[in-house]
């Protein structure tokens, strides 16, 4: 059984009951994180990172990969944002950076999802997982609060709320929305979708996996195209 | 944090054998009773001390399920160490070892140190693979062998650390070119080869990589 609140084994969900509810989308929650260091420049003493929300230039995750500990992932171009993990009802838990990357420049769309978070010890960036996007679904959970739902084909799901400066937050969220439309409807007409249209049971059967993998391979072949790296770099987001 | 070396490890083996649990026990000293299928790669990191040197283990816990395997295989490249895991209560996980080993050898450096792990040693009453069989397989294929329990933590530290000791020993013997990134070893920031261990450096603490502490 999948617990209702859940993220990663390595970083267990820490919900702080006293953290204020997120009733004002424009305000950052205060003192919600005890064990997890601030991800912004202020809280990362000793780590040379900048917040990923900087509109241009490499984000936190990209810089982490560029730092050289991950050879194979170093050359990925990543579209990423900072989030906080929230419960279904909006209570704040961990800080998470989520990004998508293409494992090959020949891909027209990203095929990998990357998750990272600050370590418990010193708040320095740590890559937590790398997941083929074919096994992950992204949904808009709450548009007004800029929340996404990330669901793995195994049934694991969690909710992420965008963290970005108020001025750029809406724009940044719209890029994620565009991305998840494109991932879902690439090559099809753009049909508006909501979470309800995707039964939660969609991926609960393990036997579906092979079918899905086959479907995906077909799609992938259709997708692959030699694109001008300039235009494909961030998938036109 | 500074370190002398960084070693990349991969953890491979059939689904459900306890790869993610071994990692979690090693990095967080926790046990997870629920099987959350890994769908890609999950990462863990921990510092260990080998012969007075700080070594960072960067661990890639891969998915064992067949549907995910073709993708995760590509991430074996550049690993210095591999934990190849089977479940002592499920013989089929032992029978599949040859195929995992072939995969690992095909997709990574020939110098990679491989530790064979018979996990779930706490379930002695349900044992389906004899310890001697694990030992024999390891001997035949040139692997280090241990039985572990991710549940009781028995031998978990030893499995990760003995693998690191063996890699370190190979570095000292000059068998690993630490400047070749394909070997899964990096020299830590602000370290140069002259200040880190080279051939002939002290080997006091490196011994008995194949034995375990006897708790299993
Ligand atoms: N009794 C016992 N159970 C264990 C042990 N290690 C793992 N388990 C259980 O075995 C199941 C699978 O463990 P995981 O670590 O998720 O398996 P995995 O190898 O990562 O599987 P995949 O991610 O699908 O490849 C879980 O229910 C664990 O609780 C152990 O040492 N003893
Ligand atoms: Mg796993």
Automatic annotation (TrEMBL), chain A:
GO terms for biological process: spermatid development. InterPro entries: GARIL-like_Rab2B-bd. The gene is Fam71e1. Coiled coil: none annotated. This is Protein FAM71E1 isoform X1. GO terms for cellular component: nucleus. Pfam families: GARIL_Rab2_bd. Residues 130-184 form the Golgi associated RAB2 interactor protein-like Rab2B-binding domain. Belongs to the GARIN family. It comes from Octodon degus.
TrEMBL record, chain B:
The keyword Cell wall biogenesis/degradation does not apply. GO terms for molecular function: G protein activity; GTP binding. Its EC number is 3.6.5.2. CDD domains: Rab2. GO terms for biological process: defense response to virus; Golgi organization; innate immune response; macroautophagy; positive regulation of exocytosis; positive regulation of type I interferon production; protein transport; vesicle-mediated transport. It is a lipid-anchor. GO terms for cellular component: acrosomal vesicle; autophagosome membrane; endoplasmic reticulum membrane; Golgi membrane. Gene3D superfamilies: P-loop containing nucleotide triphosphate hydrolases (3.40.50.300). It is an enzyme of class 3 (hydrolase). It catalyses: GTP + H2O = GDP + phosphate + H(+). Keywords: ER-Golgi transport, Golgi apparatus, GTP-binding, Lipoprotein, Membrane, Nucleotide-binding, Prenylation, Protein transport, Transport. It is found in: Cytoplasmic vesicle, Autophagosome membrane; Cytoplasmic vesicle, Secretory vesicle, Acrosome; Endoplasmic reticulum membrane; Golgi apparatus membrane. Belongs to the small GTPase superfamily. Rab family. This is small monomeric GTPase. It comes from Octodon degus.
């Amino acid at each position: 059984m999948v617990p209702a609140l859940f993220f990663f084994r390595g970083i267990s969900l820490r919900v702080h009951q006293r953290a204020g509810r997120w009733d004002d989308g424009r305000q950052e929650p205060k003192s919600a994180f005890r064990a997890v260091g601030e991800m912004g420049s202020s809280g990362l003493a000793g780590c040379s990172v900048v917040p990923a929300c900087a509109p241009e230039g490499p984000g936190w995750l990209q810089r982490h990969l560029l730092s050289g500990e991950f050879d194979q992932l170093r050359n990925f171009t990543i579209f990423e944002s900072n989030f906080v993990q929230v419960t279904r009802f909006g209570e704040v838990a961990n800080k998470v950076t989520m990004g998508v990357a293409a494992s090959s420049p020949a891909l027209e769309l990203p095929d990998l999802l990357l998750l990272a978070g600050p370590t418990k010890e010193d708040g320095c960036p740590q890559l937590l997982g790398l997941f083929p996007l074919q096994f992950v679904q992204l949904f808009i959970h709450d548009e007004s609060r800029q929340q996404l739902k990330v669901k793995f084909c195994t049934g694991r799901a969690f909710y992420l709320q965008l963290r970005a400066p108020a001025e750029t937050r809406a724009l940044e969220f719209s890029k994620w929305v565009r991305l998840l439309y494109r991932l879902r409807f690439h090559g099809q007409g753009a049909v508006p979708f909501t979470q309800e249209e995707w039964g939660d049971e969609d991926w609960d059967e393990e036997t579906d996996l092979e079918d899905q993998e086959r479907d995906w391979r077909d799609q992938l072949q259709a997708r692959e195209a030699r694109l001008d790296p300039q235009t494909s770099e961030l998938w036109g987001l | 944090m500074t370190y002398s070396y960084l070693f990349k490890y991969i953890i491979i083996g059939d689904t459900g054998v306890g790869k993610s649990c071994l990692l979690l026990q090693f990095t967080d000293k926790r046990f997870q009773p629920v099987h959350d299928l890994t769908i890609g790669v999950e990462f863990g990191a921990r510092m260990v001390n080998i012969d007075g040197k700080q070594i960072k283990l960067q661990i890639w816990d891969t998915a064992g399920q067949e549907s995910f395997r073709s993708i995760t295989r590509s991430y074996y490249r550049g690993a210095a160490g591999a934990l190849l895991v089977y479940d002592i209560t499920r013989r089929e996980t032992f029978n599949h070892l040859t195929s995992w080993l072939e995969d690992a050898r095909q997709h990574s450096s020939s110098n990679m140190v491989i530790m064979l792990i018979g996990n779930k040693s706490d379930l002695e009453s349900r044992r389906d693979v004899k310890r001697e069989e694990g030992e024999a397989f390891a001997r035949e294929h040139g692997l280090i062998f241990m039985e572990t329990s991710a549940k009781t933590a028995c031998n978990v530290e030893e499995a990760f650390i003995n693998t690191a000791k063996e890699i370190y020993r190979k570095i000292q013997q000059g068998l690993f070119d630490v400047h070749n990134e394909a070997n899964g070893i990096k020299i830590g920031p602000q370290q140069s080869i002259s200040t880190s261990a080279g051939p002939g450096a002290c080997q006091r603490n490196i011994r008995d990589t194949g034995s375990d502490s006897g708790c299993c």
